TrEMBL record:
Protein name: Fluoride-specific ion channel FluC
Record: residues binding Na(+): 91, 94
Catalytic activity: fluoride(in) = fluoride(out)
Transmembrane segments: 54-75, 113-137
Gene Ontology CC terms: plasma membrane
Top-level taxonomy: Archaea, Methanobacteriati, Methanobacteriota, Stenosarchaea group, Halobacteria
Length: 142
């Protein structure tokens, strides 16, 4: 929880206030960064790979986010770095809720094969991205 700390009164008689950079601030900063990155990535993917039957932009952000989170975790990041990159940036960059809604919408409108394929591809590619991150971190540790 963020706390405002009153530091006292300066030479001009003003009350000095500082903000404790608590974990919530770190996560919030990361969340803002991740949300903007997600927006930009979604726009770029949609411009280049438009598909009405498969939510390619959502698949892309989830796979990229899985890779980045894998790198951070397997590299041994902890504390503020994990909160900033893992919870904040990757948490807002990736989107399980959009993935779920888009998959169900595909299924409901009769696009059952693309719905199941989207779910399978997202899971398989996200796991593969995490595996690739693990391999990269392991290879650089040698």
């Amino acid at each position: 929880m963020s706390v405002l700390l009153l530091e006292g009164i300066d030479v001009l008689g003003r009350t000095a206030v500082t903000i404790d950079p608590s974990p919530a601030h770190v996560v919030g900063t990361g969340g803002a960064i991740g949300a903007v990155l997600r927006y930009v990535t979604t726009q770029r993917v949609s411009e280049r790979l438009s598909s009405e039957r498969v939510p390619l932009a959502t698949v892309a952000v989830n796979v990229i986010g899985s890779f980045v989170l894998g790198l951070v975790v397997f590299a041994g990041a902890g504390g503020s770095t994990l909160r900033l990159v893992g919870t904040g940036i990757c948490g807002s960059f990736t989107t399980f809720s959009s993935f779920s809604v888009e998959t169900v919408r595909l299924y409901e409108r009769g696009d059952r094969v693309p719905a199941v394929a989207t779910a399978a591809v997202t899971l398989a590619c996200s796991l593969a991205a995490i595996g690739l991150a693990w391999l990269l971190v392991a290879a650089t540790a040698l």
